[in-house]
User: What shape does this take?
Amino acid sequence: MLPHQLELLSPARDADIGIEAINHGADAVYIGGPSFGARAHADNTVADIERLARHAHRFHSRVFVTLNTILRDDELEPARRLAWALYEAGVDALIIQDMGLLELDLPPIQLHASTQTDIRTPEKARFLQDVGLSQIVLARELTLPQIAAIDAALGPRDAPGRAVLEFFIHGALCVAYSGQCYISHARTGRSANRGDCSQACRLPYEVKDSQGRIIAHDKHVLSMKDNNQSANLRALVDAGIRSFKIEGRYKDMGYVKNITAHYRQLLDDILQERPELARGSSGRCTYTFTPDPNQNFNREFTDYFVNGRRIDIGAFDTPKNPGQPIGWVTRLGGEWLELETHEAHTTLSNGDGLCYYDLQHNLVGLQTNRVERVGPGAEGGTRWRVFPKDPMSGFKDLRPGTTVNRNRSMEWVRTLDKPSADRRIGVWATLTDGSDGLELTLTDEDGHVGSAQLAGAWPLAKDPIQAMDKCREQLGRLGETIFQAHDIQVQLSQPWFVPASQINALRRHAVASLEAARAQAYQRPARAQPVHPPVPYPEDTLSYLANVFNHKARDFYARHGVRVIAAAYEAHEEEGEVSLMITKHCVRYSLSLCPKQAKGVTGVQGTVKAEPLQLINGKEKLTLRFDCKPCEMHVVGKIKRSVLRQAAEQPLTFYRRRPDAQAAH
Assistant: This one.
């Protein structure tokens, strides 16, 4: 990708969703391969990925495959073979976490640093660039000034080997710094760093202070709202971001279509304003719908830390989708309820998902079985009678006046179940004649040229104007192709009468020639070369937080000057209490118990201290400790004995021996 290009990077659970992401405007798609991706249940065959790559490359869009789990020793060779298979299938880049892969005989494929590598500092980013990573996914917790500092540390954007900065702009947020969460493994043996997170962060907890007082009850205090950077794209461009990533490799087709189209339009607006910037692929999209992020599952939205710390980043009441308010309850019957919508044009459909909050502020779902329009409302909306799928007696605290939200619209679902986008590459067509017959030349918006010839002799047309109009009409019939005619020039020495069937054949051959020219011109991004001699890692000691799980990763860090290298948490050498999660989110701050918040407040200053808190979910207990200097929170606990016993019964192969100082040099 060139330094002036902006890349919209969309997720794909499978190849069909990836193809629709391309059709809806993605410049690149990331997808899981058959194994070793950080979403354990989003795997795809190499053949399906090859099919996706063929389609993407028609638009000069790219396909990245996630190979971003930490690997055991016995997985290194299968991972190496998979990398070669993906390269031969046409994949453009691998997204990796495990530095052991850099010690293997990999194909000449571009490598990207996963967000799991926990890139928060200019030093870490520069190191990853210097060891040959071409694109680096920054931590979601960074502010605009921090992003700009990393951008500056990488050097001139047009320098050879300069890495592209990638940033998540939409979707679910991990509360921990990515790669720095071990709660799932400690509790269940399922490792987030190996693609199998149990999502303990979405559970409800009781929060107690150091004196045992309950300060929050049954709250999802580790559950974040969803990321939405729609309002910050221009600022992110200015800070140095060039790849804009949508989260969601578990998401369905409708989500990917809608969110890709939403950001495609926003980025196109920026490109219209800034001619010095360009798209990362070819073609323009039209849609059958108006993109709207509120229509998809979300936990409400936050821009997280991009503009500094905010108090309202958490989805503490529920990890579910609260939807959008559409009206309120007016009457209740034995098998139905009536509601009035806020807007007269709001339409309900059978199967819509509705919800409301009970008196304890718990979200209660209400799926409609059947709806009937009753008539106009008293306050300008429309009255509807709703027959729920479940008995009315089960809806706690439902009463007249209760606000009703809709979190699934069947009308919207049906719209996105149909073909909903058309992506076309602009072409200029010129038809000329000569002694050998006709020649049609197609030149696309990227400067690629395709042509076709038609030999023969034709009579003069009886109606020259009509003949030329018909000729242009036939040449412009590109509906079954990926092209759209911007201009058609018919430059004939005489107004020949050429049958439509022959013009159509000429057009088809010219289109095939242009597609072949585009395919031949497409070049996969080149692998960056590491700096020699090897640059030193920013630290000379690595704890379990570095996620070193195999001997090749250990060799990598030793080669880059690290003297002490601990094994990954999954190696079970840390059996006592450790930080199971490190996060920029602070429960004290969100509950207005932060000492910095109290600073300068008369009568409060000095009375609020950053003492530990305790999280309790059933029999599970975790401790929250607060590191106020970097403004971070640590969730502290230890691995369960049952996890250790299970691991002992199924021993793993990995590099356990720590090098001594002499061996590291």
Residues 266 and 428 are 27 Å apart (CA to CA). Confidence is low (pLDDT under 50) at residues 654-665. The longest strand covers residues 363-376. The chain is about 25% helix and 25% strand.
